[in-house]
Amino acid sequence: MSKLLDPKVLMAIKELSLAAKTTIDGFMSGINKSTIKGQGLEFSQYRSYQPGDDLRSLDWKMFARSDRYYIRESEIETNISIRFLVDASASMNHKDGDFTKIDYARYLAASLAYLGNLQGDAIGLYVINEAGIFSMAAKQDYQHLARLFYQLEQIKPDKTFITPIHYKELYAGAQKRELLVFITDMYETNEEIFSFLDTLNTLKHEVVVFHLMSPNELELNFKGYSTFEDLETGRSVQIDQDKARAVYKARLQEYLEATRIKLLDRRIFYRMIRTDQPLDAALRDFLNQRNKLNV
Length: 295
Hints:
This protein has 295 residues and is α/β, with parallel strands linked by helices. The chain folds into two domains: 235 residues, Rossmann fold (3-Layer(aba) Sandwich); 39 residues, no CATH class. Strands 8-7-4-9-10-13 form a six-stranded mixed β-sheet, sandwiched between helices. It has a three-stranded antiparallel β-sheet with strand order 1-3-2, with helices on one face. Strand 9, helix 6 and strand 10 form a beta-alpha-beta unit. The longest helix is centred in the C-terminal third of the chain and has 25 residues. The radius of gyration is 23 Å and the shape is elongated. It starts with 6 loop residues before the first helix and ends with a helix. About 8% of the residues have low confidence.
């Protein structure tokens, strides 16, 4: 077991589905099975024989009992490919209390990857910053999951977010649509994150965005500080927190609402998470909401 996995978190989410009932390219339903009928493993229903049906699907025991031809249908189990995208730009080093944003991102990705692997899904990883995209193919086995945990542990946030010149990595794996779980602080200077998300949308992936924010960001409560430095650009600014707090919080709420709407318009599932929120509670709330929306 990776040190990134907390038994309390796993107990809270183990009975929930990450993928839920997605609708593209045979993604699984909330219980890891599609609604596609065929020669699967688990019995679903009988239906009357129709001309053109595969005779191998006839149930001869039913014929012997009823003297009628029936096709035995099963639900075909279909696994999906889930890729975790982790923002590794320098702003993810922001710290409040004992955790940086990248710490929270590691635990979040590890827990969901464990859940997906437990449900039989292929798990992959992108680590993203100005240097490019580290790509780890999606596979379904425990050794691969262990390698993914190792790569999460090695992430060292640096510089700014990715530029379009590196998007070729995204297109390289575009043959199969995936469920993409993007973990980020949404820090950008020139709409680079939204440009990135628009690229993911053109590839017809389903995208979930976890927006990480720390309590001191949300409340503008950096005790003892009056000078603030941008972790990505190095620029600094002096702020009287007490005087600026009311205006800051109002503008922050406007920004968060605008972000939510912009992602909703792109049909991207958005969830803002405070880094002081217990991970088990945050994940259980998210997974319950996701399952309800996709029923």
